[in-house]
Design brief:
Two copies of one chain form a homodimer. Chain A is built from eleven helices and twelve strands. The first copy, chain A, is of the alpha+beta class. The longest helix of chain A has 19 residues. Chains A and B meet through strand 4, strand 7, helix 8 and helix 9 of A and strand 4, strand 7, helix 8 and helix 9 of B.
Chain lengths: ~375, ~375
Amino acid sequence: MAVYKKVSFEQTEAFCRKAFQGYGFSEEQSVQITDVLLAADLYGIESHGIQRLIRYHKEITSGLVDLKAVPEIVKETPLSATVDGHNAMGQTLSIWAMELAIQKAKQSGVGMVTIRNGNHYGIAGYYTRMAAEKGLIGICMTNSEAILVPTFGRQAMLGTNPIAFSMPAKPIPFTFDAATTVVPRGKLEVYAKRDGTIPDGWALDENGHPSVDADRVLKNIIAKSGGGILPLGGAGEGTSGHKGYGFAMLCEICTAIFSSGLTSNLACRAPDGAKTCQFFMAVDYGMFGDKDELETHLSEFLQQLRDSNKADGQDRIFTHGEKEYESEKRVRAEGIPLNEKTYSEMQMIAEFTGAEDLLPTPHE
Amino acid sequence: MAVYKKVSFEQTEAFCRKAFQGYGFSEEQSVQITDVLLAADLYGIESHGIQRLIRYHKEITSGLVDLKAVPEIVKETPLSATVDGHNAMGQTLSIWAMELAIQKAKQSGVGMVTIRNGNHYGIAGYYTRMAAEKGLIGICMTNSEAILVPTFGRQAMLGTNPIAFSMPAKPIPFTFDAATTVVPRGKLEVYAKRDGTIPDGWALDENGHPSVDADRVLKNIIAKSGGGILPLGGAGEGTSGHKGYGFAMLCEICTAIFSSGLTSNLACRAPDGAKTCQFFMAVDYGMFGDKDELETHLSEFLQQLRDSNKADGQDRIFTHGEKEYESEKRVRAEGIPLNEKTYSEMQMIAEFTGAEDLLPTPHE
C-alpha cells in the first residue's frame, strides 16, 4: 500500500505553473493548465489531479500536444462553432471554447462549441462552473481513449465519456460531473497505485468476464487487447448497463459526430495527438422565466433533497457539487494528499522542467 | 403467474381510438393518444403500453386530466417557449410541444419547449423520433411522481425522470430512451402483475433497505410511506448510484425548474392534475457541418459497435433503437402480448366507453 503524505496547495500551484512554463507554455497558458489540473485536487477528485501530471508530461514531451497550436473555427453560426483544435493543449483549448460558448449564449441565448483534434482537458466540471459563474447553464462533454465496453461486448469502443452540467444555485452552484462508465479511468490508476485491486462490478477482462485486477485491466486497455470498464449500470441489462452505454453514446454524438472528429475507438492512436473531441454548451435560462426565481426554485429543491429522510445508518444526503465545495476548503487548509509514486514523478518533472526550486515539501 | 395471450395490433388500435373518443376526446386527439400508447407495445416496452390503459382510465375519469384544456405559452423567444399545460392530456400536449420545438429549430437552429402542469405522456422516445423524422436531433424529458430515492436516502424525491435522445442514422435512427432509475415504474407494475418478485438491486423498502417485493415497493410509493426505486448505478456510491441521481436531477432542472413547475416530490398530489413537467428540444445539427456527412459518420460508428467483439457467450451487440425496430415488425405481424389482468381491465374500459364492439379477441 502506497504511503500518503500532503503538500501545500499554494506551493503545488506555484510549482505546476513554473513546470508548465518549463515545457514552453506561456505564463497565461501555464496558469490555465494548472488551474484546471489542481481544481481536481481541490474538489477531492484525486484521479484527475496532480497524480495525472506524469501523463501530461508524457503527452507534451512525446509530441502529442502541439504547444504552438491555434484553434481554428471551421464553421460558425450565432449559436454554434465547429472547431479544429489542431492538437492544442486540452485545458487552454477548452477554456477558450467555453468562453466562446458563453459569449454566444449571452448574445443569442444558446452557445454550442464542438471540437475535433482536441486533447485531454481534465475535469469537465471546471468548464461548466465557468458558465455558472457567468449566470448561465453550462454543459460539457469529451470523448476519450476507448475504455468502455458496450453491453454484451468485450472490446472497449467508447471512452469514459463524461457529461457535466452546472446551474447557479445558493449557496453553491449545482454541478454534476460524471463519467458514463461506472468509474473513470483515473480511478483505476489510483487503485493500481495502491494495491492493485478494484471492487467487483467495475471492469471486464479481455474475454468479457468480470475482473478486479486494476493492472490487468489498464494493461489490456493500453495494449488494446480487450476488456475495459463497464458502463454505468454494470454488466448486461439486469441493472441497465445499456443505459450507461446510451449516455456514453449521447456524449460521443455531441463530441465526435458533431465535430466530424474521431470517435473514441479511433482516438488516441496517432503519434501527433490524442485527437479527442469535446462539446461545450452555455444556455441563458432567462429565456424560460425570471432568472432569480428559477435559481431560487432550484436552491429550494436542493435543500428539500438534503432535508429528506435518510436511509438506516446514513446521516446525510448530498447534492451534486457539495462534496467538491467542502473538499476545496479542506484541501486549501490542509494540503493535497499525495502518494509516494506521484511525488517521485513530480521530482523527475521538477528536474526536467527546471522547477526544482519550487518542488513542494511533503508533510504528514 | 399471469397467463399471456396476444391481441392483433390493428384491432387494439381501432379499439383504443374508439375508447378515447368515448371519454370525450376528439377523433384527432384519440388517434394521437393511441399512437403514443401503442408505440410502446410496438417497441416491446410493455410497461408503457396497453397495460397502462387502466391508469389513463383512472386519470381521465377522476378529473386529473382536463379534456378541454388548451396549452398556454407564458413566455416565448425564437429559441424557446415556456408553457402552462393546464392539465391537458399528456400525449396531445406533448405532440403539440415537440412540433413547436421542431418549428423553432427549423427557423433558428434550436427549439426548446418546457411545460408545467402537464401530464403523463407515455414513452419519451416517441417525441424524439418525431424530430429525427424531420431530420433533426430530438431530446425529451419528463419528471413524474416521486419514486427515485436519492443516494443515502429512504424517501422518494425524484421521478423516474427519463431522458431520451434521437439522431437520424441509417438504416434506423439512433434512439436512446431511458429512465434515470435502474428501471421505470412500469416495469415494477409488470412484475407485480406476474408473481410480485423483482430482481435485487432495483428497489428499496420504507427503511432504505434493499427489497425484492414489487407490491410492497409500489404500495409504499402510492402511500408515500418511504422507499422506492434506486437510481441508475444502484445503492450507495460503490457502483455510482449518485450518477443516476445526477442524471435525474438534470431532467428535473430542464423540466420543473425551467418551467417553474412542480418538482417530482410535489407533483401528483393535487386532485385536478398530475402537474408533471416536460422538456422538448430539437436541434438542426446542420449548424455543425454537412448533415449527410454527419449522419453517415454516426451510421458508420453504429455499425462498428455492432461489429465489435462479443463477450464470451454473447452473439450480438445492440445499438439503441434496434430492439424497438425489430420488435415493431414482430408485434405488427404476431400481435401485442397481453396478460389476463390487463385484458380484464380492457373489458371494463370497453363497457365504460361504449367500445365493446371493437374489443380485440385474444389468441394464443
